[in-house]
Design goal:
This protein is 70% helix and 0% strand. By secondary structure, it is mostly helical.
Amino acid sequence: MTNKEFRKWRREREITQQIIADYCNINKSTICRWEKGETNLGNYLYSKVLEFVSEKM
């Protein structure tokens, strides 16, 4: 899942960046910057994001 695909998925389900950040135990700005393509998530954070997605599908 790319950052843009994730952003679309998250918005369609009305899930806030803060909810994702809390789940990953990181700052909301990290999710924001990743969705905008300003930074990359490390392997661990990316796997946590995908874990969240799989739980919500």
